[in-house]
Design goal:
Layout lengths: L15 H16 L10 H9 L5
């Protein structure tokens, strides 16, 4: 961060091993099944509404 505080320089080209590892992790993450409730409870809806996420 001290060398590029604005993070303007893309350094991934100089780190192909890191790029490969990150791609593998992202692929694995995308493949994992995430259990999502099919319906939201009234309590959750109320909280989301109060935060402005739903109307």
């Amino acid at each position: 961060m001290s060398v590029d505080p604005g993070e303007m320089k893309n350094i991934i080209d100089s780190n192909p091993a890191v790029l490969s590892q990150l791609r593998k992790l992202l692929y694995k993450f995308k493949q994992e099944k995430v259990d999502v409730p099919s319906k939201l409870s009234n309590e959750v809806k109320k909280k989301l509404r109060s935060l402005g996420y739903i109307k």
